[in-house]
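call fold(seq) -> tokens
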Amino acid sequence: MMRVTTLFCQRVSRYLNDFYRKGDTIKAVVKSVEMNNNQPRIILSRTDNQFLERLFEQEVPEIYDGLITIKKIARIPGERAKVAVESYDDRIDPVGACVGMKGSRIYTIVKELRNENIDVVNYTANTSLMIQRSLNPAKISTINVDEEKMTASVYLKPEEVSLAIGKGGLNIRLSKMLTGYDIDVYREIEEEDVALVEFADEIEGWIIEALKSAGCDTAKSVLELSVEEVAQRADLEIEQAEQVMNVLKAEFE
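ret:
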């Protein structure tokens, strides 16, 4: 911890939603110490993954003692983080130990990070299982992993797709960062539904790919959205989104 100076206050305010006054105490990791005109210049960070790791060490004795290890951290500072942990003692639940009784341990960390959401994931060397855990709270129906290309195709029920992607795409972005795999999310095709690729003669390929990346890979998954939502997700003009909707509606008329 360190006392805040006026200059440091100005620098800290650039990151996250942190604001400090001169004389406040702040928790951060020291990134570097430089000499400038014989004056020490200390560079601190609250956005570095190491800072989050140190907070866990402070709040979780099992991590400090080496009984639980943080295997990897994926973080979008100020928004959300995923932390993969592993226990070296079969009697210790690593996720439960990090969360604490009634969330007491994780709450302290979240509070320090100004309510940044933190998901704690039980690490495993099984790639398929790790990807499934990283996409929590979404429940995966089927997963196909290509370990050579470091890609994964995940299939979910329609109501699970939005959970896998998360608000603003945060959940799937963090899952990719945590696992190191390029993850594509697909909706399970229901009866009487049609995959978007079947409309390649009527809808431009880049539009189909943009919709698939947004979790809409079937006709009905697109038709469930408003024109405005389709335009936003695929980065289209309203007129283009309307044309896409009209093509898809015609399939079921």
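The radius of gyration is 23 Å.
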